[in-house]
User: Fold this.
Amino acid sequence: MDVGDYRAHDALGLAALIRSGEVSRGEVFAAACAAIEADNPALGAVVRTRFERAAEEGRALDASAPFAGVPTLTKDLLMAIGGEPLAFGSAALAEWRAPEDSSLVRRVREAGFAILGQTATPELGLMGITEPKAFPHPVNPWAPAHSPGGSSGGSAAAVAGGLVPLALAGDGGGSIRIPASHCGLFGLKPSRGRVPLGPMFGEVWQGAVVEHALTRSVRDSAALLDAINGMDEGSPWPLPRESGFLAALERPPEGLRVAVSLGEPLGAPLGTRLDPEVRLAVEQAAARLEGLGHHVEWADPPVDGEALADSYLTLYLGHLAADLAWISEQTDVSVARLALEPSTRAIGRLGRCLPARDYESAKRYWNRAARDMAAFHRRFDLLLMPVAATPAPRRGELYPSAARERLMSLLAIPGSAHLALRAGMLKRLAADSLRRTPYTQLANLTGQPAMSLPLHLTPEGLPVGVQVLGPMGDEKRLLALAARLEAEVAWGRHLPRAGAARPEPRD
Assistant:
């Protein structure tokens, strides 16, 4: 199998070839390694490889596993491989090694995947772009001058660039859906607690973070969820393992009640300006759903965008302060001396000054938003809206400027962080960090599943995804709808390949 043949298949397609004997696991493994060695220097998607260890592990693979021998990559964040580096995108953890496999990694191994390396992420997964100072910056395979998004930007670049058919990813505020939108991929954020985060963590960001993958095909996403879902020992979310996610694709949903929104209640308080191509993508998706026989109605989600952004950033600040204390414990380096990016250090200082009262009040708003959305879904089965306000930004466009970093460094002055919070620094942070991507945090706060569908290309050849949210626990209906749209649009044929010409815009 040469690299071209390897790239022609999704993960289930490669698994079928291996099971039939048409190709061997070794041939697939060699093709994947060759693709990474040839193209990753330009893509910057993979921060470290583990080819030799993966080859050793491959000899013990269960040939009956659903993905036996299929290559994948994990994200350099949370997805621990015992005894191996896990830097969280930060120089502060560059030498740290995970004590044991995470629950997700164990299940990925049991499913038969060969883990070939780890993908780039911003420091501690804090940004919707992937430009860590300690590691290379991945490029968008559709347009290398543009960002693949974040925080799972390395995984998105790896899949869109043809290095692997699927790559593991995580989503705490849009970190699967934003890169999926920018890189023309399918990206599902499962329901809260659907995929375990143990044993190192029970929950991350009060349950906002959920791990899954970026994929070329819907069926790969569904089959992977069959393999990795369900609580692990000690999980705070009592969701038993379920089956039938892949089987659900065989039953396209009929007569859905679909609410369509341009996300005004979420974006307007932050000064968001919706790009005309994003508006067009949503409108065309709504028309497509109507053409499939679903009832489509314009209706905004019943949330206060300003309160949502404030509550999200409040929990974000508090957790970052705790994360920095954890890094200090793990590395035996004081928080003040950790090798952190200026923006990370500044936000951590704000988090240390956050009153517990404000933290608890923010969490209560999450619960109110979840109940309001549950009531909304009694009227509508699904909500269709943008993923991001614009197509992929140019690389470097959204990273804090040197002047901004110097300003944030002033928070080191004693008492300044308290003053900054009282002066409304939280609202400024919300506007600065979420203005381009105000539509994805809702599903993280409420816990409901959401997905990005690659349904549109701009005249310049940049992908634009559209987002669909469903009620808590309703991944099967989301996946079934996605599969129906995938069959109609055939989006997989448009994916770029490293060194290939830019794809033609879709209709």
Summary: The two ends are 33 Å apart (CA to CA). The longest strand covers residues 450-457.
